[in-house]
């Protein structure tokens, strides 16, 4: 009995939305870092 697997099945939409949000947060953080680097160079 894999509880995690059941959770994934039951809350797949929530789970994928969560991953989507995390992905975009990390993406924004990376863009912010690039922006900071660029500002530091100039």
TrEMBL record:
Species this protein is from: Argulus foliaceus
Name used for this protein in its record: Uncharacterized protein
Domain of life of the source: Eukaryota
């Amino acid at each position: 009995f894999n509880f995690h697997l059941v959770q994934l099945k039951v809350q797949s939409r929530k789970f994928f939305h969560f991953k989507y949000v995390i992905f975009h947060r990390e993406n924004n953080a990376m863009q912010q870092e690039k922006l900071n680097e660029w500002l530091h160079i100039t």
